[in-house]
Design brief:
Blueprint: H1 2-9, H2 15-24, E1 26-27, H3 28-31, E2 46-52, E3 57-58, E4 61-63, E5 67-73, E6 78-83, E7 86-87, E8 89-90, E9 99-103, E10 116-121, E11 124-129, E12 131-143, E13 146-154, E14 159-166, E15 175-178, E16 181-184, E17 188-192, E18 199-206, E19 211-218, E20 221-224, E21 233-245, E22 254-268, E23 272-273, E24 279-286, E25 293-298, E26 308-311, E27 317-323, E28 336-337, E29 340-344, E30 353-362
Parallel strand pairs: 4-12
Antiparallel strand pairs: 1-8, 2-3, 2-5, 5-9, 6-7, 6-10, 8-9, 10-11, 12-13, 13-17, 14-15, 14-18, 16-17, 18-19, 20-30, 21-22, 22-29, 22-30, 23-28, 24-27, 24-30, 25-26, 25-29
């Protein structure tokens, strides 16, 4: 898996070739004239192998919008190239009788298909077993207290590994964290998020040699994931808190907040520019009654702000994503964020309320 991931990242040596290839692509339908009279010496095409173009690695599955080298025979006379019946693009200027470059279109079908790469000329065609792969999106969830991602797309049937990759070799901070795969279907892979992940790209590799990368996962800026950001400090009134609670926790630790009614837990940042991020995200675990709530207040309960009430679910983690614009729907945003409070706001007269905070940060 590591070699596959590195092959995606370390492609500079082949960038010029791939760039020329991409610029040279044209639709097969426009390039070939199927009405030409066949030459009596023309033989049907033959496919011997398909390779990922950047590292020339043999594969039997392709990623949407990626480029591949097809090797075989009688490829100089082809009239069409299709994958699952959908026209692929080729680079005519780079083709020979034994090699062509093809590019898989973004909208090629990939689920519930025959998985056939077909190359045809005037006298025949050849089929090659070749499925397609893409990650359309991912969603987040918690299953039995475990933080998971649901990778959505396909064809995931032959999934082998899922890895969360942060940093880069160039910067000397590359970290690869293998994920436990919980379930695999043609359209969805569910994987547990490894401990310690703040921001990463998710790489999914298959036994067919294909590797696909997700959009960025995680935080642009973390406040608490297993530990408090060292640039921040905490305070409170009317209760206690523990930053090393283990049950429940989405990773190694969460923050347990034991509160009197209307008391609060305070986070003090090093003055964050208000316009630097789009949203605040946090996961909170409720332990009380349905309808219990916590109010997230900004800048010491700024009188110009609309502070956000977060309704908790007993015995369950709830992930909240609050656009910063929701705090100031009528304008008047501050220059900086200098304080965030979670105030107990259930208003039910209980002597004690307990909730847990985890995966807290900015998006």
């Amino acid at each position: 898996m590591k070699n596959n991931i590195n092959s995606i990242k370390k492609n500079a040596s082949r960038f010029f070739l791939v760039l020329i290839t991409l610029l040279s692509f044209t639709s097969c339908e426009n390039e070939f004239d199927s009405d030409k009279t066949p030459n009596s010496n023309v033989l049907p095409p033959v496919i011997k192998s398909v390779s990922e173009a950047r590292e020339d690695v043999p594969v039997t599955q392709g990623v949407l919008e990626n480029t591949y080298i097809v090797r075989g025979e009688n490829l100089g006379t082809i009239t069409s190239v299709t994958i699952n019946g959908y026209p692929a693009s080729i680079a005519p200027a780079l083709g020979t009788d034994n090699l062509i470059f093809i590019r898989i279109p973004e909208d090629a079908p990939y689920v519930g298909q025959s998985n056939i790469l077909r190359i045809a000329n005037a006298v025949g065609y050849t089929d090659y077993d070749f499925s397609l792969l893409t990650i359309e999106e991912f969603t987040e969830d918690t299953i039995d207290g475990v933080k998971v991602v649901n990778l959505i797309g396909g064809d995931f049937t032959d999934t082998e590994t899922v890895t969360f990759v942060s940093g880069s070799e160039e910067n000397g901070d590359l970290v690869e964290r293998p994920a436990e795969i919980l379930s695999i279907s043609e359209t969805t892979v569910v994987a547990a998020v490894p401990a310690g992940v703040e921001q990463a790209f998710i790489f999914l590799a298959t036994t067919r040699g294909a590797v696909v990368q997700s959009d960025s996962y995680g935080f642009n800026y973390s406040i608490f994931i297993d530990a408090l950001n060292p640039d921040w400090s905490m305070s409170q009134w009317g209760g206690t808190f523990d930053v090393q609670a283990t049950d429940p926790a989405l990773g190694q630790y969460s923050i347990q907040s034991v509160r009197e009614g209307w008391s609060g837990l305070t986070f003090l940042p090093p003055n964050i520019a208000f316009d630097e991020y789009d949203s605040i995200t946090v996961s909170i675990y409720g332990t009380g009654a349905p309808g219990d709530s916590v109010t997230l207040a900004i800048n010491d309960f700024d009188g110009s702000a609309s502070h956000q009430q977060l309704v908790l679910v007993p015995g369950q983690w709830t992930k909240f994503v609050i656009p910063l614009s929701d705090f100031y729907p009528n304008g008047g945003e501050p220059d900086t964020i200098f304080r965030l409070d979670f105030q107990e706001s259930s208003n039910t007269g209980q002597a004690q309320y307990i909730f847990y905070v985890d995966d807290f940060g900015f998006l």
